Amino acid sequence: MLDDTKSNKVLVEVKDLKMHFPIHAGIFKKRVGEVKAVDGISFDIYEGETLGLVGESGCGKSTAGRAILRLYDITEGSVKIDGVEIGDTPQPNLRKMRPTMQMVFQDPQASLNPRMSVAAIIGEPLNEHSDMSKAEKREKVLSLMDQVGLNRDFANRYPHEFSGGQRQRIGIARALALNPKFIVCDEPIAALDVSIQAQVVNLLEDLQEEFGLTYLFISHDLSMVRHIADRVAVMYLGRVVELASRETLFSDPKHPYTQALLSAVPEPDPWLEEKVDRILLEGDVPSPSNPPKGCNFCTRCPQVMEICKTEEPPTVEIAPGHIAACHLYS
Ligand SMILES: Nc1ncnc2c1ncn2[C@@H]1O[C@H](COP(=O)(O)OP(=O)(O)O)[C@@H](O)[C@H]1O
Ligand SMILES: [Mg+2]
Fold it and tell me: What's the predicted TM-score (pTM) here?
């Protein structure tokens, strides 16, 4: 359940979102198929909450995050931010909406321009979206550096002079520059040393509280999501297969895929470790350019039934706020 510091206002509304990438081949670059990276996902994100998005690598999490921010022209569906439909807004008109929604990337090394100073990187969004004077910008950049725990004296240094954790703080400061409401955090700590992961997560949590931020937190690390998310959506091969509050998802997972993912989380207590029933998933995630007929998970599901191989399972609400797409429950 959402606690009372979170509102009941929906800030982000995603409906039947599809992002298919065309596959071209041959000398005439004919369109021969498509990668169905995101294939019809729907969920709401409440103002001030963190929605975790989990699933194995390749299941479409990053594409979903980017499509929601309209870093792509989406194939189908609707995305509303604060009541404004941006799913079909042409790119030039999106500029006005950009400040409200930002992204923190997985690899701070790759997402920071090595030839720009830290101050220039953090201040870049201000050049385009504000009419601050040079002095005002400088002051804003320095206060952003304070907010993310970077020493102001390093404002003129370059990204390579910083550690991985500090570089991620630079990326976070840049994302905050325009006072966004909604931030997609795409595996923001996956590339960092384990020893500093917690610091960056704590920073993100502190900033959320201070500025009332709403997060879509993408991760393949379930213990991290369990720590940070209010609700969790589980993705498999372009679809959301289950969504529930954190407590419900971890204590009472319904979808066989969620059950398998959770059973693979390492148990730190060696006494309990023996008791964990591991569900081993066989085979790899099928290619999103040629997904199975029926349920996407039917080729690997330990509880597969005949109907699963022919009919796509409907998404049903098993209990209030707990949805799953599986024939076991429909
Ligand atoms: N620009 C693109 N063009 C073609 N295929 C893509 C593109 N981006 C991602 N994909 C494919 O879409 C699928 C989902 O990728 P991604 O969203 O990165 O998954 P995840 O973040 O869950 O690991 C993968 O099969 C990937 O190869
Ligand atoms: Mg990814």
Answer: 0.94
